Records
---
Amino acid sequence: MAADFDYCIIGGGVVGLASAWCLSQHGSVLLLEKNALFGAETSSRNSEVIHAGLYYPPGSLKEQLCLRGKALLYSFCETYDVPHKAIGKLIVAPDEHNPRLTQLFTKGQQLGIPLQRLDRRALQQMEPEVDAQAALFSPSTGIVDSHALMQTLAAQAERHGALLQRHTRFLNARPEQGMWRIHTETSDGPFSLSAATLINCAGLHAQAVATRIEPVVAPLAQLRPCRGHYFSYPGAAPFSHLIYPLPPENLTGLGIHATLDLGGQVRFGPDTQYLDKDCIDDYHVSSALKKTFAQAIQRYFPALDTDRLHPDYAGIRPKLHGADQPAADFDIRRSHDSPPAIQMFGIESPGLTSSLAIGERLTEMIQRH
Ligand SMILES: Cc1cc2nc3c(=O)[nH]c(=O)nc-3n(C[C@H](O)[C@H](O)[C@H](O)COP(=O)(O)OP(=O)(O)OC[C@H]3O[C@@H](n4cnc5c(N)ncnc54)[C@H](O)[C@@H]3O)c2cc1C
């Protein structure tokens, strides 16, 4: 007996949608999304930066998929007219001969990432409002309209016959006659279907979803949700590039940076605040954070007008490491062989940049068997 679908994807964030687009070129796809809109969780609560791939441990999935994802994303955006811009980014250092900046420059060269070293004078010519002694300029870093990207991925997947179901919650799955028997809750009540391959792209809920795929695989990397807040800075933009301080060694975040959206509006963020596991839908931005934000921003932008800083939005990173632990990699694993299931955990930054490369990798993992 044939399954109703070749592939069933749980989660309609940018990774699930990119996977649906990739897999729809190889078979029938059903995507389940519990919310009314696609990408309403982490995929619409981020910096919308197309990362160059500079920061991640050598050989890690984050590094590989970011580098490949950046190329695929620029090409996808150009082909399908998704608004984006290679606006360029400056990583700024408080001292002239900063070893961490040199380290990033060397790493960039090894990876073939275009980078330019700037002294204080060159930096001031480029960004007169930024106060730093040295900088790295990364011209291939860009910004993308993440909503338009997800709409386009959904439309292109549907063009290839994928069925994308909103208001549909995955409840559980178990093997039955060599395929997956999948139970869902829809706005019209419970619904059950079968699929040959199951794919868990449930973001912050990936671990919870995994406990409902039988037989349950153990041990799973624990979810360590980490919220990042943003403050808007309305009015004329003081910069024309993305401005980043040097990142902390263990990459808990990338430091409170300045990003621009495609409309030219500046926002600052995100910081890092670890949350309890049951707080993964708390997106509150406290105005009490303003002082900490102002102090961090003033280190590279002394003319900051604090009256213009307003609490904006927050996103929650599905991290797999705690504040004092080394950065964990993306965890993308084939958890079950027969019938096959692939599950993804810890798809934090650079997950948006990597989304199409994750879809491509997933397709290879399925086809290899
Ligand atoms: C503050 C912040 C800043 C970031 N900045 C950047 C950046 O600048 N550049 C970059 O590349 N990346 C960035 N990222 C990372 C990027 O946003 C994520 O890696 C990416 O959005 C993850 O997408 P996803 O599809 O895996 O997860 P999500 O967007 O969380 O999607 C998962 C989906 O699964 C659905 N789901 C869960 N459980 C079920 C269920 N039982 N049934 C049905 N559906 C279910 C959810 O409703 C959700 O829509 C940032 C992240 C954060 C938090």
Note: The mean pLDDT is 95.
---
Amino acid sequence: MEYDIIFVTGEIFFDHPLCGVAILKRLLEKYGYKVGVIEMPKKEDDIKKLGKPKLFFGVTSGGIDSMVRNYTPLKKLRQDDEHLDYNESVPDRAVIVYSNWIKRHFHDSIIVLGGTEATLRRFVHYDYWDNKLRRPILFDSRANILVYGSGEKQILSIAERIKTNKELDNVPGTCVISKEKPSDFAELPNYQEVQASKEKFCDMQNMFSNDNNLAQKIDNRYALQYKSPIYTSKDLDEYYEFPFTRKIPVKHLRGFEFSVVTHRGCIADCNFCSLTLTQGRRIISRSEESILREIWRITKLKYFKGNIDDLGGPSANMYGMDCNKCNKDCMICKNLDRSNKRIISLLTKARKIKGVKNVYVRSGIRYDLASKEYLKELVNCHTYDTLRIAPEHVNKNILKLMNKEQGDLHRFIAEFKKFNPNKELSFYFMIAHPGSTMKEATELANAMRSLKNTEAAQLFTPTPMTVSTCMYHTSLDPKTKKQVYVPYTYNEKKMQKRLVLGVIKKKS
Ligand code: SF4
């Protein structure tokens, strides 16, 4: 068969809404395109196995940057991480490697980059693994265009343009290389400036946004970002209601076959997280009708046993917190609807659908945005045995540097226990975030001694384009330009890790 589009992905492909390539494939097929997928090519020749596509190759490392996938936060090979379906055949810097393989065999093919690795390397970025600044990935990959974010609207627009021999500039939600900077594009500090000055690097960080047209000069050319297209509830309803088979062959995702995505985006803007630069900093919720319809269809699948594995999104209780009146910080805005009414209504209706025995919420919630009514519903009807939350730290200064200072953890724990003393909470914490000396690590370890189920704590990984990574690279808080202590050495990170993980080991 001759394909119009061939995706090359660093992850196992599965026909499920949790697989980004599967959504794009279903969408393109709906519009009449023939789509092939090459999953996890192991050697250069694998790239040839479906031939040359009529329109383009779509290249992605998948939902995880290949360097994060392949290395631990201490830069050791991740072979032994039981939480990852580790496969050595995903090459380091997979997006660049795959693109080069394609160029060698199909030199005149158009290459479209997408996924997390491309999205978060779209401008000059600090690369923790090389410990240096790297140019935008379009410059290193020889690809034609980069799609950032989820990419459904972008990929349709690109396919249509290539089919009709139109140029690939001006596609919302994409980046291209250009000789000129359009007059209405804000200019980021250029490559030389951010290499020479940490303050300029901070200025660049402060300008990152999906909502603006941005340009950055690299030598004598520009990386241009066209601002993100607007996605609506209706769009998400369409994408998540495609007739996926939902079969998941991936070990670490098994048990999530019957997960239902309720929304995209995050309003919290945590400094260590890149979600606002992938999915955006406003919530887009699917309609209740669409989600309930999806669950009803799941009940008709032969192998469904009655349990919805997860009903959620980036933070389950942000469902329904859609507000797009301004671009200020929703977390401190009195207009934000904190009642959780929409998610309560959804959960109540979902568990009443014929054929559904349980609807679990395993996505994790923002405990500082959980109303009492919601918490009661969640604990009594939607928590299997343990609810996972991520306080990240206990020290006020570190939480401020994480932009996660809202919320009263102890009050939340007391309320949780009041609603159902038989259910447990488990906590996720982050070790060695910028700002953390041995004193803060000790404070965290002491706090963890008093909590049950502190089962997860991980070293901070400086992933590309986050605010915390900017702190790691510059030793400055980009918002204030004040100095921040950063634990840089292998030994110090290891000592902080031992201190905190020692608590977990003693408890288990
Ligand atoms: S009005 Fe408040 S809740 Fe709405 S978008 Fe603006 S900051 Fe966010």
Note: The domain at 5-225 is CATH 3.40.50.2300 (Rossmann fold).
---
Amino acid sequence: MANSEGKTCQNCRNQFTIESEDFRFYEKIKVPPPTWCPECRLQRRMMWRNERTLYKRKCQAPGHSEEILSIYSPALSLTVYDHDFWWSDGWHPLEYGHNYDFSRPFFEQLRKLFETVPLVNFYNTNPQNSNYCNHTVDLKDCYLIFGSIFNENVSYGSDISYSRDSLDLYMSEKMEGCYFNL
Ligand SMILES: [Zn+2]
Ligand SMILES: [Zn+2]
């Protein structure tokens, strides 16, 4: 059984410890021990979720060329459609299905799939007059709010739910007529 082991993070150069039970877990799932410290690994995982860094890029829906805002940088080789077209029946996601090739690495194929299947510019489900919001559900007359659900007439903030007629909120629920609530 492996003992705990001190390591130097290959990213930030800080010391971290891999415990003996961690080694057992890595053996069990057949992966090598990490070379990055837990904090750097967490940052790398969280990079996947871009809530509020917005980029201008061209809509790539068939016959479209308008400029849209998106959470995906134009420098990335991705296919991004505007929100309304992506949610429409103008394209069919199953057309992008193909068989898994067991002779090639999984992540190479996953990346290719991710680059090919059209992505929606913002993850904004059922917005009414709330186009500039991301990771949101059921918004009406909202502007630049993120990670938020069930709001009306709320602008600027994140992690807001069941609120209305408010500005500059953060981690707030059931607010009404509020400003700068944290
Ligand atoms: Zn580190
Ligand atoms: Zn478009």
Note: The chain has a mean pLDDT of 95.
